[in-house]
Amino acid sequence: MSLLIASIGFGLVTASILAVAAVGFTLQFGVTNILNLAFGDVMTASAFMGYLATTNGVNIWAAVALCALFGAVFSVLLNRLLYTPFVRHGTKLFGMIVVTISVSLIIQYTLQAIWGASFFSLKFSPGRSYHLGSMVFTTSQFGIMGIAVAAMLGVYGLLRFTKLGKAMRATASDPVLARSCGIATDRVIDVAWLLSGALCGVAGMALAMNVTSFTSTTGGTFLIAIVAAAVLGGVGQAYGAMLGALTIGLSSEVAAGVIAPSYKQVVAFVVLVLVLLIRPQGILSEVADQKEVAA
Amino acid sequence: MTRLRILSAALATIVLGGCGGSSAHGPLVVADFNPFSGADASFGPEMVGGCEPAARLINQAGGVLGHKLTCQVVDTRGDPADAVPAATKMLATTTNLVGVLGPSADEAAATVPVIDTAKIPMFADTGEAAFDHSKFVYFYRLTPADDVKGYALAQWAHNRGYTRAAAIFGSDVGAQSDVPTLLTAFKALGGTIVSNQKIALDQSSYRTEVTNMLSAHPQVIFTEADPQTDSTFLSEVQQLHGMLPVIGTETTLQAPWLKAVGGAIGTTQLARYFSALQPYAPSAGPAWTTYDHALLASGGSVPNPSQWASDPYSMTYYDGVNLMALAMLAAKSTTPADYAPRIVKLTQASPGAVAVTSFASGKAALAAGKTIRYIGAGGPIAFDQWHNSSGAYEAAVTIGGKTKILGVISAAQIATLKAGG
Predict the structure, then answer these.
(1) How far apart are CA B55 and CA B100, in angstroms?
(2) Is B101 helix (H, G, I), strand (E, B) or coil?
(3) Which of these, A244, A291, B94, B256, could form a disulfide with A232 (CB 3.0-4.6 Å)?
(4) Cβ contact (<8 Å) for A260 and B197?
């Protein structure tokens, strides 16, 4: 029983990283309809930025903020310089997926060319451990969970209570109608990439802090779980991605504790398949049923 | 895979029918058949570090039956899909191909049948237990099979006085092949494996697995997993409990693993708690000294040669080339099918046999009509009937790039455990 409770606690840390990444991934997809499979590699690039910062004496939490900024700028530039020209030329969803896979490989191999096929560790201390019943958390894990909660509340507040959030939801729902209603959809799309990139940068740093050693492929490896959380929640649904991340994070850790470690991924993806069998559009479906990938 | 093997063998037979001889002129070629790109790109250069010094010394000693000997890189990319065409091309187009170093575990299952069908002797570095009792006539292995590692790990932990251990191995085939013999041998030595976990690779966290393991109170952790997996796992052991002694396989003595785990738990902790078992290759003795001098003089063809000076794999590749060259002299033929049967005999102790520790001394003894026994840079060689020579293991730590030997598990100790299992 105590292992089960402990694994739920550990699952919360995994889910926190996954939630930040999945919300960033799905928020951008919901607004722009580009399934950005280079997301994991932007996470890795951000982790390398964090590595540079921490090895030069920058505090770990300041480095997280720096990575958010880096991820935001990187993502906006990626969209403006690479993706938008393809969209303007009429490239469809499948074509764009191929483009994003290419970008993913370009980023991955560029990182490898610059940094080498080696492993890197952020210079920081995880801090002391705190016991909450059977659960154990380090200071840095509390920090990661805190950032995740703040990011989720921020995204919730933005989408629910601000004009920009409403414009984003309108653009996600029907961009043509949103534009004819006077919404500057191009600006909304830029903001979506900016926000998504910032969350991507934060998730990249959180992942690097959690795994302790990372390489040029680390973020790409994590992408499958991110996409799974986003699809589980309902593609394009920020709140759904939060739920999806929680489901995947908790189920994988509980499976490792209750069944066997080698079933960790199996159980998480069995849960994904079962949920999609019952609700093919994902847990929350407001936008998902309008997107090709969920059809 | 079986279909691929049959097709490959058939293709090789068609392409190479009647092949296996050599032209009267031109250098003899030994192929470095290993990954030089891809995930296991680090394997190939290790092989070059063995082949080039051997070729250098053989050529300095006048070559083999009037031929110079050269090493030729053949990149398998660590993938059977690339390795099979690379093997057929190598066999079909390489003039005077007399031997192969490799293949590695990445491509052995698909390419050993191809090379064997072409009747080319190969000194493989694959650790697959499937080759422990294989019927491939031209297959030779001077490095231990993966399953032998399990015996060495158990014996070393026993020697250190550990009786309660956790087995934490990655879910990949290579790592898992160590586990059955480890479990059997540790039990036979009076120990208990209190936690045996097959862990999924490259996860963002292993805290549940670590907690599960710690609840069983192990004194030591046996492990083999990729660098990222082990660095995450062991850093979480450190966070949740404090570091425990760790005994790894030779995979964990490689630079990427040491860098990743050292970065995660700290190099001081790594030096204090970690040791690993690797095939025993003493960096001493006349055979090793000859190898070392030739290696260090091979800077033109071996980048940063000193890194391979104490590498057991590089030493066995060096020995493989020497054995093939001496076998050609003994058989008075460079045709692989003629000289291959001499290879095993050259390593056997027999009345009147002269122990030789280099190609030059072996060539001189053979020219004088003597029977020789080759002692390698990696130590004495004792092939079994399936052409496997496992030898001993050494426990080592690598601190600041320097390997320090902590102790040796003898071939006899391993044989005893094997017999018991």
Answers:
(1) 13
(2) strand
(3) A244
(4) yes
Interface with chain B: mutation pick from A119, A253, A267, highest number of B CBs within 10 Å: A119
pLDDT of A9 strictly over 70: yes
pLDDT digits 0-9 by tens, B257-315: 999 999 999 999 999 999 999 888 878 899 999 999 999 999 999 999 998 998 889 99
Indicate whether A283 pLDDT > 50: yes
Which positions in chain A touch B231 (Cβ < 8 Å)? 119, 121, 211-213
> For residue A293, which phi and psi values (nearest 5 degrees)?
-65, -25
CA dihedral A49, A52, A58, A63 (to 10 degrees): 10
Q: What is the pLDDT of residue A128?
A: 85
Structure confidence at residue B67 (pLDDT): 96
Residues of B with CB under 8 A from a CB of A: 41, 171, 197-200, 202-209, 211-212, 215, 227-228, 231-232, 235, 239-240, 256, 259-261, 263-265
Interface test with B, best of A16, A212, A222 (most B CBs within 10 A): A212
B197–A261 CB contact, under 8 Å: yes
**Whether B209 and A129 lie within 8 Å, measured CB to CB:** no
Are B104 and B76 in contact by the 8 Å Cβ rule? The answer is yes
Numbered residues of chain A with Cβ closer than 8 Å to any chain B Cβ: 3, 6-7, 10-11, 13-14, 17-18, 117-121, 126, 129, 136, 138, 207, 210-215, 218, 221-222, 225, 252-254, 256-257, 260-262, 264-265
Q: Read off the pTM.
A: 0.77
Give residue-wise pLDDT tens across range B128-186.
888 988 889 999 999 888 888 899 999 999 999 999 999 999 988 778 888 999 999 99
- A7/B208 CB distance under 8 A: yes
Long-range contacts of B335-343 (CB under 8 A, 24+ apart): B335/B20, B335/B21, B335/B22, B336/B20, B336/B98, B336/B99, B336/B119, B336/B120, B336/B121, B336/B138, B337/B20, B337/B119, B339/B98, B339/B121, B340/B119, B340/B121, B340/B137, B340/B138, B343/B121, B343/B140, B343/B383
Helix (H, G, I), strand (E, B) or coil at A231: helix
Residues of B in contact with A121 (CB under 8 A): 231, 260, 263-264
- Which residue of chain B is at minimal alpha-carbon distance from A18? B204
B103 preceded by cis ω (within 30°)?
Answer: yes
pLDDT digits (tens, 9 = 90+) for A44-91: 999 999 999 999 999 999 999 999 999 999 999 999 999 999 999 999
Residue B316 token pair: 């066995």
| CA A33 vs CA A94, A201, A226, A227: distances in Å | 11, 21, 17, 14
Determine contact, residues B220/B160, Cβ cutoff 8 Å. yes
- At residue A149, the pLDDT reads 93
The secondary structure of chain A in percent helix, strand, coil, rounded to multiples of 5, reads 75, 5, 20
The confidence band for B23, taking pLDDT boundaries of 50, 70 and 90, is low
